[in-house]
Every structure is written in structure tokens, then in C-alpha cells.
Amino acid sequence: MRFIATVSIHKEDEWYIAKCLENNVASHGKSIEEALAYLKEALELYFEDEEIPTAEPRFFTSLEIAV
Questions:
Q1: The Cα angle at residue 8 between residues 40 and 32, in degrees rounded to 5
Q2: Contact between residue 9 and residue 16 where contact means Cβ atoms under 8 Å apart
Q3: Given a cut of 90, is residue 55 above it in pLDDT?
């Protein structure tokens, strides 16, 4: 079965943090590609013991606020 993860990536110091928004599994790497590769591995391990969720549509946008 296939699962398409929605992933958020941001940089903290010298690390890129990749996080799956469906289940909060996260990983990090020195590059975006490395962080995604490690996240893919972490998700594969995670789903060995968990049921794969059904795909629900997700909508994302940006929101500007005054601070």
C-alpha cells in the first residue's frame, strides 16, 4: 500500500527538520534531501506497527499577520 505524506521542512541552525503533518514523525539532516531520506526511513518503520491512514484532502495557505 502507498501513503503520500504531507511534509513540512524548516531549518534550525545547520539542520533541516522534516516533519510528517499526518502523524508528527520527524527527522533531520544536513540537507533537505538528507532530511527527507531520513524521514522516509522513519515513516516506513513507523508504519510497520501502525495502520496506514486513508487519504483525506488537505488544504494549506499562508497567513500574514502584523506583529
A1: 60
A2: yes
A3: no
